[in-house]
Design brief:
single chain; 387 residues; alpha+beta; Alpha-Beta Plaits; 2 domains; five-stranded mixed sheet
Length: 387
């Protein structure tokens, strides 16, 4: 289960964006009318920006979220009132399910067999809505008029609320238990913003603000995702080498640095396979991410990690690094195969140094830490050596 702190962090940003736009609609009489006049143009402009960036960076998930939203918005503007009402009810049901499907689907690129399937699926959704708009079906109409709840959610139909609650439940479970919080938390707020825009239809400008809020939330997610891809390691979810270089440039006059390496990792990979090796890397990374004493851990590359201790002396840091070594040493790792499973134990070695006046830059400090790491390996591994 994900921690409440992580959940709060990943939900706070999109929720704040939604609340800003929602409150602007509720207090529209106190804001300049010009802001609401240009809101449709802002929506289209932001949508184009999102689509272009998503295309450029091959993040098709965002394309398939924003493009249908634009089509719905255009439909409300160009269709007759009766047809727009039908679109209103159909999109209340279809788009939440659409959101859930594209949240669960993995990012596999637009120009692939999976990308083609996604395009076909979206085309099917569009065709289905057009078919229902121009050729109403009695079964569908009966479903729309089905009474499920005692309370009234006008202008939303009961079936729309039932679908919303179902999707809300699934997304909430993903927020609680799935590791991709950045997506799960954001899509949950997008769902709430979308349904709120329809529910408060009679509130002036609320739907416009809701759609604009969704665009801003998606754009923010796209920026955060781009940052994550650039600065975080995909396998271990810890900061990568680029983040390390950025943070090393910010170090003050005093700091300590540790280079950490998993003992006999190549032999482990050769024995148990790279998939199991990846699981070991994740386990070790999860321990290193919990380093105390003001340290911050990074994946430097392969089975090697770096821990920075800004404004700390070497003697202050030694105990924290050694505690990590002991925690990893005593954490059993279960290896399974077709016949049986067994528990194995992983060790790490570390070289810890403090910067000095002789060091030209942090990379010189890192080199000394690397030398201390090799000394730890020469002395039998599973050790922390101070240089």
């Amino acid at each position: 289960m994900n921690s409440l702190k992580l959940i709060s962090i990943n939900i706070a940003i999109p929720f704040f964006i939604f609340m800003v736009f929602a409150l602007s609609a509720f207090y529209s009489d106190k804001l300049p009318s010009f802001l609401f006049f240009i809101s449709p143009y802002l929506f289209y402009m932001l949508s184009i920006i999102i689509l272009w960036i998503s295309w450029h960076f091959n993040r098709n998930k965002f394309i398939f979220i924003v493009a249908p939203l634009v089509l719905i918005y255009i439909g409300f503007e160009i269709l007759s009132p009766s047809m727009a009402t039908k679109l209103f009810h159909y999109s209340c049901i279809i788009y939440p399910i659409h959101l859930l499907i594209f949240l669960v689907l993995k990012e596999r690129g637009l120009f692939s067999i999976w990308g083609v399937f996604k395009v076909i699926f979206v085309a099917f959704e569009i065709g289905l809505v057009l078919l229902l708009l121009y050729y109403p079906n009695e079964v569908v109409q009966n479903l729309l008029n089905l009474k499920i709840f005692n309370a009234s959610f006008y202008p939303l139909k009961d079936i729309s609320i039932a679908v919303f609650l179902f999707v809300l439940f699934i997304m909430s479970a993903l927020v609680l238990f799935n590791r991709y919080l950045i997506y799960n938390g954001t899509f949950l707020i997008i769902l709430i913003a979308y349904i709120s825009g329809f529910y408060f239809l009679k509130t002036p400008y609320f739907m416009d603000m809701a759609f604009l809020a969704i665009d801003m939330i998606v754009l923010t997610l796209l920026i955060r995702e781009t940052y994550r891809l650039a600065f975080y390691d995909e396998l271990t979810s810890m900061p990568g080498r680029r983040a390390l270089i950025e943070d090393m440039a910010k170090l003050g006059r005093k700091y300590s640095l540790a280079m950490v390496d998993i003992d006999h990792f190549k032999k482990f990979n050769d024995t148990y396979g790279h998939d199991t090796g990846d699981e070991v890397l994740k386990m070790v990374a999860s321990k290193l991410l919990n380093v105390s004493g003001g340290g911050k851990a990074y994946r430097y590359g392969g089975e090697e990690f770096t821990i920075l201790f800004p404004a700390k002396e070497i003697n202050e840091c030694f105990g924290h690094v050694d505690i990590l070594r002991q925690n990893i040493e005593t954490s059993g790792f279960v290896v399974r195969n077709k016949k049986k499973s067994k528990i194995i134990y992983i060790n790490i070695s570390a070289g810890l140094v403090q910067n000095s006046s002789k060091d030209k830059d942090p990379f010189a400090v890192m080199k000394r830490a690397d030398n201390a790491l090799y000394k730890a390996k020469e002395l039998g591994r599973n050790k922390v050596i101070k240089a």
